[in-house]
Amino acid sequence: MLAAFVTSTLFLLCYLTYHGYLAYVLHRGPTRFLEPAWFRPIYLFVLLTHTLLAIVIVPMIVVTLVRGLRERFDKHRRIARWTWPLWMYVSVTGVLIYFLLYQIFPQRPGPTDSEKSSFQDQIQGLRQRVGWSWAACCLPGRLVYRL
User: Fold this and answer.
1) Structural domain boundaries of the chain?
2) pLDDT band with cut points at 50, 70 and 90 for residue 134
3) CA–CA distance, 62 with 87 (Å, rounded to integer)
4) Which residue did the predictor score with more confidence, 28 or 46?
5) In angstroms, what CA-CA distances link 95 with 13, 19, 32?
6) What is the reported pLDDT for 118?
7) Whole-angstrom Cα distance, residue 102 to residue 105?
8) Nearest alpha carbon to residue 64 among 8, 18, 2, 3
9) SS3 sequence of 40-98
10) How far apart are CA 37 and CA 142, in angstroms?
11) For 36, phi and psi rounded to 5 degrees?
């Protein structure tokens, strides 16, 4: 359990560092699962359960580890019955999410802040040239966001 705890902690630190770097240094938003549309609800369900259980499992892991290290094996066994399967689910679904998002159904990464502002500048210029009413009624809804 100690090896799994250390490995999971290192993974979590690397994951948070990488995504922090993407967000704060490269100004990239999260990658969104859009295609294929028929699989999106399945992906979102797996992502939701993975995320919620990843939050729930952290204190459970710490409690299980502390009880084991303090040799309170009766209490350790009681919580470990729940900790181990949930931890395995979070681990397996994390790998599954990665494969779905980047290998099986590769998605475009989210736009950078400069791409977003460039798009906003284009929309603003279009509004000024042809008038707001044309831009509001004729541009596809998903292209016009944060106007």
Assistant:
1) 2-110, 113-147
2) very low
3) 12
4) 46
5) 16, 16, 17
6) 62
7) 6
8) 2
9) HHHHHHHHHHHHHHHHHHHHHHHHHHHHHHCCCHHHHHHHHHHHHHHHHHHHHHHHHHH
10) 15
11) -75, 145
